[in-house]
Structure formats: structure tokens, C-alpha cells
Amino acid sequence: MILSKEQILEELESGRLLIDPFDPSLVGAASVDLTVSRYFRRLSLHGGPIDVRQEADYRDYSELVEVAEDGCIEVNPRETILGITREQVGLPDNLCGWFEGRSRFARLGLLVHISAGFMQPGTRNNQVLEISNMAPRPLRLFPGTPLCQFIFQRTAGNTRHQGRYTRQTIDDFRGTSAGPAKT
User: Fold this and answer.
1) Domain 5-44+61-174's class?
2) CA 57 to CA 164: how far, in whole Å?
3) Residue 119 pLDDT > 60, yes or no?
4) Which of 136, 144, 36, 34 is nearest to 81 (CA)?
5) Which has the closest alpha carbon to 38: 178, 179, 173?
6) pLDDT of 122-175, one tens digit each?
7) In angstroms, what is the C-alpha Rg of the chain?
8) What is the pLDDT of residues 6-32, one digit of tens each?
């Protein structure tokens, strides 16, 4: 069952669901818009092939780009960069969800996730966005723009995810911490 606006607000009020910082104006009929922070990562064009293995870490193959709050970053046609949401989302053990792009930006050629849009129950993190430009022209992204929407779904039972990025924060994304917290 997908949560409606009223159910989302009830879960937030009870403290079982966390969105921090929370802006009530970003709650829609059955989703919550999430905004992009000012931190991005560009995949490095230099170096040899990347070995796609369990231990691969995106931070080893990308460079951090910090954008001023009133600035922007350009994403070139056919380029993929990583961004991260300002909001941290914390799910209880009976809610999961996924984030999707917003149609107004998809119509401009912007994809906000390539394949990893699902969030497991028990996860509490800032969502990394796999941002791709499918347009024939560069796209400019501005910090604070609600680029995606998060859809919450109740699970049939209770469970808790304990994966590598279960507690990823903006500091982890920036590479200024020891890495995602282990749970």
C-alpha cells in the first residue's frame, strides 16, 4: 500500500518516519519532494578501466564538486554525475520506498536515478542521485531544487536492511568521514 499525504504526515508526527530537514510544502498527494544539496561528484575521465566488483567505491572514481548555495552545476549531454539530497530520510521497519524523477524535469531530459531508486526498510540516509542528462543541450542544476519525489510503501511484515549505505550521510558522500556507518 502506498502512503497518502495524510498517512505520511501521521508517520512523521509519530516520529516513526524521519525527514530532516522537513518542509511541509514539499508533501504531495502520495509522495514527498526531496531537494538536491550543493554537493556533487563527477566521474573521472582519466585513468584506466573501473573494475565493477563488490568492493568498488564511487568516491574512488569521482571528484567532489561543491557548488555555492546561489550557484549551479552544468551537466553536459550524455553525462552522468552524482548528487545527494539535502534531506535525510529514515524509514521504520515496516516502510520502504523509492524515489522517482519529477516529470517537469524529465521532459527536459533529466534523469535522477539510473537504477538504484529503492530504499529498504530501516534505512536512514541521504539519497544519492544518479543524475544523467539525456537532452541535446547542457542542463544547469541548482542547490535546493526539488529534483525527485519519494514514494512510501508499507511492507507486509517488518524487516531491517543492513547494507553498505544504510546510514550514508552528506559527509560520507563528500569523503569527509570514515565512510558509511556500519549497522
Assistant:
1) mainly beta
2) 10
3) yes
4) 36
5) 173
6) 999 999 999 999 999 999 999 999 999 999 999 998 878 776 666 678 888 888
7) 16
8) 999 999 999 999 999 999 999 999 999
Catalytic center residues? 130
Kindly give, in sequence order, each residue whose CB lies less than 8 Å from that of residue 71, ignoring residues fewer than 6 positions away. 38, 142, 143
Query: How far are the Cα atoms of 89, 103, 104 from residue 107, in angstroms, in the given order?
Result: 26, 6, 6
Q: Got the DSSP string for 32-94?
A: EEEEEEEEEEEEPSSSSPPP-STT--GGGGEEEEE--TT--EEE-TT-EEEEEEEEEEE--TT
Does the pLDDT of residue 180 top 70, yes or no? no
Residue 181: alpha-carbon gap to chain centroid: 17
The answer for 103, left when phi > 0, alpha when psi is -120 to 50, beta otherwise, is alpha
* Contact call for residues 150 and 95 (beta carbons, < 8 A): no
Q: How far apart are the first and last CA of the chain?
A: 27
Q: What is the spatial distance between Cα 131 and Cα 38, in angstroms, rounded to a whole number?
A: 14
